[in-house]
Amino acid sequence: MNNFIYDIPVRVYFGENQLCHLGEELLKYGKRVLLTYGGGSIKKSGLYDAVVEEIKNAGMELYELSGIAPNPRIDSVRDGAQMCKEHQIDVLLAVGGGSTLDATKWMAAGACVEHDPWEFFSKWAPVEKALPVVTILTLAATGSEMDSGGVISNPETQEKIGRLADPLLPKASFLDPTLTYSVSPYQTACGAADMMSHIMEVYFNMDPDLYMLDCFMEGMMRTIIKYAPVAMQKPDDYEARANLMWTSSWAINGFVNGGKRQEWSCHPMEHELSAIYDITHGLGLAILTPRWMEYCLDETTVSKYVQFGVNVFGIDANQEPMDIAKQSIEKLSDFFFNILGLDDTFTKVGIEEKDFPVMAKKACGGNVISGFKPLAQEDIERIFAMCV
Asked: With bands split at pLDDT 50, 70 and 90, how would you rate the model's confidence at 280?
């Protein structure tokens, strides 16, 4: 196995009634705070009032930026970065799901440069520093509360690009499972698919690595399979919401990566879907993942499918490896499309075949995705065709 470095210095306040620590965390970085959030659901739930009260009790100066959309746009990042500069913001507080958190991270980076924030993606401009970010999570899905990444869309260029940079790591994150009680069954399902994909992108890897990490990933996948349906049926089930929330963080905070080096496959393919069609990220991943698994299955990779099927879905190990592998794909499809109830084809969500070539070319950067199985443009187009 390869050597690796693991360093995630994010302070996490997990559980109910932890907002009493919000003021002390924010004050570590100054007196001026920019509060960012999405469409206003935090006002309906009462979370907004609770957050504002903590900020005012801490004697801080409050500024706000709302309206951050799903698949967050570069325009929001530009607006936030400009506000930080104009008002000499010391710390940003992101309240919401992954879209709000991702946009806020890039606002924090954009506030520290003179160039347009889109250059972080179009020109891969260096991210040397960022203003401190604190998060309050309201949707378990992306893991942005405990990682250094963020994905931003540019509608003008029809691009959706993700990037990691150490300065973007949140300083602290507040994870209260009760704040996800109001998440709809649909968004809970999409979040579950997103989490599963984060794990599977790492798990499906033929490089030898720590057995312990594979066991950890298998446990997280079993957790999602067990608790996502419970949370959909009983939105206020604390045990279900807590398990999903903590799994969301650990699925993509870098711990499971170990010494693995391969690229992710389904995420770059899905980014092209939501860049053009603005679909929910988890939904796109759910449609793609079983077809990607089917496309990558052969005698050189079958052992990983057997491990997945036996250890995650409990398939009888006393069968032919290829039979187990095919059953594992069927089990995953059943989970996504029947148990979670997500749409199972591109046709159902309005994705058209005419866009396959351009999406496939962008997904592999005109070259090859060096993932579980190398995928060139023609391979990706075939996977897309399997999703129709």
From this structure: very high
- How far is Cα 193 from Cα 248, in angstroms, rounded to an integer? 11
Contacts of 44 (CB under 8 A, 6+ apart): none
* 359 neighbors 276 (Cβ within 8 angstroms): yes
pLDDT score of 1: 79
What is the chain's percent helix, strand, coil content, to nearest 5?
A: 55, 10, 35
List Cα–Cα distances, 112 to 47, 83, 92, 131, 153, in angstroms.
Answer: 29, 12, 13, 7, 20
DSSP state of 179: G
Contact 344, 333 (CB under 8 A): yes
Average pLDDT over residues 175-194: 98
Torsion angles phi and psi, residue 30, rounded to 5: 140, -165
**Tokens read off for 81:** 């970065």
101, amino acid identity: L
User: Residue 204 burial (CB < 10 Å; 0-12/13-18/19+)?
Assistant: buried
> Which of 53-57, 103-107, 208-212, 252-256 shows the lowest per-residue confidence on average (mean pLDDT)?
208-212
